[in-house]
Amino acid sequence: MARAAALDNFFCRLAPRLGERLRDLAADPVAAAALARDASHAPEGVADAHVLPQTTAEVSAVAAAAQEFGVALVPRGAGTGKAGGCIPAAGQVVVDLSQMRSLLQLRPADQLAVVQPGLITAALDEAAGEAGLMYPPDPASWATSSLGGNIATNAGGPRAVKYGVTQRYVWGLEVVLAGGEVLRTGRQCQKGVAGLAMAPLFVGSEGTLGLITEATLHLVPSPRGVQTAWLGFDDPAAASLAGSRIFAAGLLPRMLELLDAPALQALHEVHGQASWPMPSTPTALLVETDADDPQAARAQMQRLCEVARPLACRLAAHADEAEAMRGARRQVSQALKKLFPQKISDDIAVPRSRMPELLAQAQRLATAAGLSASAYGHMGDGNLHVNLLCADAAQRHAAADVRLQLYRWAVGVGGTVSGEHGLGLTKRCAIDIEFDPVSLLWQRRIKSLFDPQNIMNPGKSYAI
Fold it and tell me: Rounded to whole angstroms, how far apart are CA atoms 389 and 337?
């Protein structure tokens, strides 16, 4: 009853201002179901209420009313998250930021863009490209994921091996805090050391500290030469050793992506080979080099192939073929999910030198549990998507223990349970593996300073 009364008071306060953009979802089960899930394997939540603010002032009003009446807020962008970070519980309000999708400023001379959180990642990169610039973070969902969500999870992508993840490109943020206060932190220039660096605190915070309403993002010059290729190998171990030789030779590709046999087989079965040209080998690496001119990029690729010593190599002959190769990599997760709807996917990261061990450990643990596994993803920066290919509920139960064993091993060698997706709901089981008691205590103390009533995405990531 108290929860229902709190929502009623929340609605009464905001309805005159937001009108139809504030909705009680009790009478709309289709919309409620869509807002109660994301792209993870987390169980569907409960979406009772939905608000679609269009300005920072409206977000501030929502946060103020939420704190006054004790209503929890769950921020949502495009719903492409892989960890359940935007899944609501009963009595909570989904704050949908997808309508705040403007590119507010694009300043090539300063190599920056000012964006709202709902802007799609690829749209920013496309706009930057027209000015000879690039926004480097490129998660597989970049054509549909929003920048606010990318910032909230510190998203990465294939280009991270050379260019790094989202945090490197966040210069400043505007954040609505619990109670409606608007915090502006950071800057619009490349250097700045005055005071505490607060913007990085919100990158990767998964909405537990506040609602991002604006971001100043760094752009870099777009390379004029890019060369893309598929390299074929006998198995993931051989591909991993090839990666070690590439870096030992002083080469830094902008992509070094692994696709193992189950990943390639899924692409064959779901999409057919005609749409993604590559050698027919049991394992592949998608590699890409870039430079200031095309000849230099091609020379880098030729040197890389000499060092890697693949069984087969196919260089993209033109831009369309290169995009087909990249597109195949982006389709792996969905292809596996179509064949194995119960699959569980992770984004474990380890020091790059431990990559062969990660591959072996994942396969050993899966086999011991009677499971099949697929490993694909960002071999270049030690961040692999280990997928446990579950056929039924019993296998999913067995997979849960495999995940914990793999988490413990990864953290034990200096890695992490999540390289880019965040903890959300699906990895809260790993909190005590990733964080010691002192670290977890201080994270929660920091949250309590920003959010004393615990209304900002409670129960996600490290939060209580």
Answer: 9
- Confidence at residue 294, expressed as pLDDT on a 0 to 100 scale: 96
The CB-side HSE value for 226 (13 A sphere, CA atoms) comes to 18
- Is residue 357 packed enough to be buried (19+ CB in 10 Å), middle (13-18) or exposed (0-12)? middle
Asked if pLDDT for residue 274 goes beyond 80, the answer is: no
Max CA distance (Å), the chain: 69
pLDDT at 291 exceeding the cut of 60: yes
202 pLDDT exceeds 60? yes
* Three-class HEC string of the chain: CHHHHHHHHHHHHHHHHHHHHEEEHHHCHHHHHHCCCCCCCCCCCCCCEEECCCCHHHHHHHHHHHHHHCCCEEEECCCCCCCCCCCCCCCCEEEECCCCCCEEEEEHHHCEEEECCCCEHHHHHHHHHHCCEECCCCCCCCCCCEHHHHHHHCCCCCCHHHHCCHHHHEEEEEEECCCCCEEEEECCCCCCCCCCCCHHHHCCCCCCCCEEEEEEEECEECCCEEEEEEEEECCHHHHHHHHHHHHHCCCCCCEEEEECHHHHHHHHHHHCHHHCCCCCCCEEEEEEEEECCHHHHHHHHHHHHHHHCCCEEEECCCHHHHHHHHHHHHCHHHHHHHHCCCCEECECECCHHHHHHHHHHHHHHHHHCCCCEEEEEEHHHCEEEEEECCCCHHHHHHHHHHHHHHHHHHHHCCCECECCCCCCCCCHHHHHHHCCHHHHHHHHHHHHHHCCCCCECCCCCCCC
How many C-beta neighbours within 10 Å does residue 326 have?
A: 19
pTM: 0.96
